[in-house]
Amino acid sequence: MNEKEFAELAAGHALGALSDADERRFADALAAHPEWRALAEYDAETASLLADAVAPVAPPADIRDALLAQIAQTPQSDAVAPSARGAERHGEHHEDERHDGAAARPRRWSRGLFALAASVVLIVGLGIGAAILVPQLTQPASVVALEKIEAASDAQQSTVRLDDGAQATAHWSASVGSAVLVTEGLEGLDADRTYQLWLVRGKDALPAGLFETESGEATALLDGSMHEGDVIAVTVEQAGGSPTGLPTTEPIIAIPTA
User: Fold this and answer.
1) Which of 10, 28, 42, 138 would staple 144 via disulfide (CB 3.0–4.6 Å)?
2) Does domain 151-256 bear CATH number 2.60.40?
3) Average model confidence (pLDDT) for the chain?
4) pLDDT at 212
């Protein structure tokens, strides 16, 4: 499972909209990738904010139908079997119904649908507040983590400039326990190579994820928990990362955190 797929599950989990099977997938993915916890926590906090911000009132009688109609019209990122698409066109949204002998697949909650559901709640309770809060729901885990770090009382950062003019800034917080690297002007790599992050702790180099640049820019959340005093480093490795679990080239970026 990649981060985008986990983000979809995290959105559905925060809204209580996952099936039992997807709840298990969410829990398994979170256990396997603790670095994604910030994304799940952000969604949960946002869902809680939505609930707390709106006073308990009887919803309009047609709000459920309106929401389902909007969901039915929202493009999905997942490929849906032709039989399932046919079921949707005829309004057959129940998981136990059949069309042409095939079971309709349960709809997954994407980030877009999470924002849509939140929009309905906010429009009912807060009116134009939706335009302000909903965009916050679509942020990637690295941006969410960066915001948490910057809001921490012990937030720190350090910037290095490379010989070719590119620069990299490490942001970290001991209380948050995570670090994010932001790059500008970092050259793109061929398809057979990738940038790999490392947390260098004493004599040990711990792999901390891979990242790519877009127009020289990247915001990358390091996997694992950062300890104060670690060195945040980047090497260029073969596609998929170092086959040995250790750096195979000299670091192009090395930023001490102490």
Assistant:
1) 42
2) yes
3) 75
4) 93
